[in-house]
Structure formats: structure tokens, C-alpha cells
Amino acid sequence: MGVEVVVEDLSKSFGRQTIWQDVTLTLPPGEISVLLGPSGTGKSVFLKSLVGLLKPERGKIVISGTDICRCSEHTLYEVRRRFGVLFQDGALFGSMDLYDNIAFPLREHTKKSEAEIRRIVLEKMEMVGLLGAEKKLPGEISGGMRKRAGLARALVLDPEIILFDEPDSGLDPVRTAYLNQLIVDLNAQIDATFLIVTHDIGTARTVPDNIGMLFRRQLVMFGPREVLLTSTEPVVEQFLNGRRQGPIGMSEEKDSAQVAAELAEMQAGGLQDPGGPKGGGGTGIVPQIEPSPGLPERKAVQRRKDRVMQILHTLPPAAQDAIIASLTEAERARYGVFAGAGVGRGQAGSPPRPQGPPPGRPPSPAPRGGQPPRPGPQPPQPPPVAQLPEGGEWGSRSGELPGQGQGGQSQRRPQDPGQWFRRGGRS
Ligand SMILES: Nc1ncnc2c1ncn2[C@@H]1O[C@H](COP(=O)(O)OP(=O)(O)OP(=O)(O)O)[C@@H](O)[C@H]1O
After folding, report:
1. Closest CA relative to residue 311, chosen from 359, 245, 382, 244
2. β-strands 5-14, 17-27: how paired?
3. What is the rounded distance in angstroms from the CA atom of residue 63 to the CA atom of residue 66?
4. Known Pfam families for this protein (predicted)?
5. Which of 19, 195, 198 has most ligand 1 atoms within 8 Å of CB, for mutation?
């Protein structure tokens, strides 16, 4: 299973140019997260920092207890082997055929026999739909196939974390849709932690469990997809709708008077933006892509439900509503949120508010940098121990997440659940 990646107060500059500062977030194990942001906001720099190719000046990146900003070169090398990275162009060697390209990390980093290498290479090529293309050179295949080959190569060392740098760049919408399905299918099969940097709004709306956004050297938000997809934060709304009106300008930012005037005019219905974002925009919840028929369910889905229900009370109302509405009746009962039991906002059809915690159970802490808890009914708590899938209660001595008990690798959960939802920065 994938590992958790904990980023704390991370800051990166080049000389006097601050790229971003005080970035704090946690990539939950096995979940798919997307990082958005206007061009030049440092998304690629963030990916390179995660994999230890760039050294941030301040802060921590903790993976299985190791802070890779402070560890030895040898330890960093070991941690890096746990990553797979899909670079924008696949980063293939032009003179090698696809088979040799994909076999390269195995030949470089392991002592496996050629027979074993062959078995692994063909297995990964089959996973990405490239079986039969072993002898092709990168220059002889389409951009989509090159990305698939790059992905197969990223998979050969069985990574626990996979970073995707704009996997959809240069692809047409149909190829992008296939690649997005492939990403979800791979996650279902290997349960690794995925982080995708993209500009494609369709990808951002349909693939991830979590979305983050960088803007003006800050992480504006990071949290469950429902938070950003229902957000009224101007910069998030503008980006997800691909509009010209809003805080994001041609050269990154606009002056605040212009932003205010545009937003006022838009609210009055005066401004039209005939263009549309790549990948189709719009806010609101759209269904997440599910694994293809015949594949296992994504294990992260249940873990995420348990996790998100624990922080539900820290999320904005619209996100709470969307999350509760996505639960089945049985799940609502399990998590202690019942139809008609909450106060709601008095609107017909509005989803129920969560009920209070079971007696004796204190509410979870509010997130650092997050919104204050909503007044009124108390948040739901994780299911009683007897109902947890396995692995014990939150905060138990084992420190494991529900569902990660026996068999799986033990993962520390973040000490601060608020790192799973951050709202900060300026917009
Ligand atoms: N090695 C480096 N040395 C100096 N500056 C760098 C270096 N790498 C990146 N930068 C600068 O960091 C800033 C952020 O770059 P980055 O490529 O991470 O942005 P991005 O958000 O990924 O952009 P895009 O969406 O266009 O790919 C840019 O101003 C870039 O010039």
C-alpha cells in the first residue's frame, strides 16, 4: 500500500525569488491527490522537492518517519526508490526501444535476472496497454503511448508513491480520458499514493480524492475534492471555471480593485466569458471515475470515507452536504449521520447535519489554518471500534489508519487531522 507523505511548513526559493512558502499538507496513503495552480506557481518545483531533487530551505517532508529535507544522501537514495515519477514527456531514452526503456530502472537498481526483468516489464506493459509495442522506439509512437511507456517505467520498481507531472499535457481530450481511466485503474491495482500536477480541469474534477491549489506563493487550499469543487473562494472558482474574471491574471495576479470590479460586474450578469477551460470546467460535484469493470475496488475509498468523516465538522457547509449526500443509508447509520436528524439550513431537500459524537468522545481538533467548526450540532466521530474495518480506533497506540491493520504496512496517521484540510493563503 502507498505511504503517507507529510509536508510541514515547506518553503522554497531560488535566490531572492520565493516560489512558495509555509506549505503544509498530508497526502493520505493510497489516495489520489491533484495539485492545481496557474503556470509558474511552482507545482513542478513542489514535485521535485518531494522526490528530493530540490532542497527547500525550510520545513519538512516526512515519509515513514524520515524527513527527506534533512537525511543523508544514502537515506535519500533509499527513500527515492519508493517513488515512481511520470515526467511530462515520459522522459524516455530516444535510442532505446520501449522494452529497454522500461527495463532500465530494473537493470540499474536491482540484481534481477533477465528472465525476471522480462516478466516484470511485460507485466507493466500490459497494465498500461502497451503489450506488443516492445520493439518500438519513442520517436515512432504517439504522445499518449510515450506517456504510457513512461508510466510503465515508473511502475517497475513497485513504487509506493507516484508523482505525475502534467500527464495530460499535449494529449487530446479522448486520450486524456483514457489516461485518466488508466490512472484510476492503476490506483485500484497497486493502492499507491498518487499526486498529479495538472491544468486539466476535467482531470481535476473526476480523478482525485483530494485537490490542492497553489497561488501567489501560498497553498490556498488542500482538502477533500468536495471542498474545492464546492468552494466559493474566488481564486479556486476562477481556476475551476477557466474564467478570465478573478484574481488570476495573464501574468499571475491582478490588482485588487480590478478583481473587485470584475466580480461585481459578473455577479450583475454583465461579463461573459465565451471561452472554456481545457477539460470542461464548472464547480459542483461530478462523479469520480471508478475502476474499469473486472478490476478490484480502490482500497483507498473506504479509508478515505473514514478519514473524511472524522474531519467533516472542520469542512465548509457545502462540502459537508456533498459528502453526506454521497453516503448510502447504511453508511449514514454507521457514521452516525441520519436523514432528518440534523438542523440543516431549513431548506427543503438539504442533506442532514451530522449528529453529535457518542457520549464521552471529545470532538476532533480544528485544523490549523482551517475554518472554525460550524456552530450547532457536533461532528460525527469515527465509527465505534467494533465497527472499524480493522486496525483499531483513531489515535490508538498502533497509530494505524482504519483498514490498515493486519498484513499491510503500518502507517502513522498525521498528528493533526487538519493537515488533511488546509485553507490558507491570500486570494
Ligand atoms: N532550477 C531552477 N532554478 C531557478 N528557478 C527555477 C528553477 N526551477 C524552477 N524555477 C522557477 O520556479 C518557478 C516555478 O516553476 P515551476 O516549473 O515549478 O512552475 P509550474 O507551476 O510547474 O508551472 P507550469 O504550470 O507552467 O508548468 C518559475 O518561475 C521557474 O522559473
Report:
1. 382
2. antiparallel
3. 5
4. ABC_tran
5. 19
Smallest CA separation from ligand 1 atom 14, residue: 42
Provide the ipTM: 0.97
The long-range contacts involving 286-290, CB below 8 angstroms and separated by at least 24 positions, are: 286/205, 286/206, 286/229, 287/206, 288/206, 288/207, 288/208, 288/209, 288/225, 289/180, 289/181, 289/184, 289/206, 289/207, 290/184
With a cut of 70, which residues of the chain have pLDDT below it?
90, 245, 250-283, 338-427
Give the model's pLDDT for residue 367.
35
The single-letter DSSP state of residue 160 is S
Domain ranges of the chain: 5-82+159-248
| CATH 3.40.50.300 correct for 5-82+159-248 | yes
Q: Tell me, in angstroms, the distance from the centre of ligand 1 to residue 252's CA.
A: 13
- Give the whole-angstrom CA distance, residue 197 versus residue 146: 18
Cell of 326: 454521497
Grid coordinates representing 76 are: 535519500
Rounded Cα–Cα distance for residues 180 and 361 (Å):
40
Fill in the DSSP letter of residue 427.
Answer: -
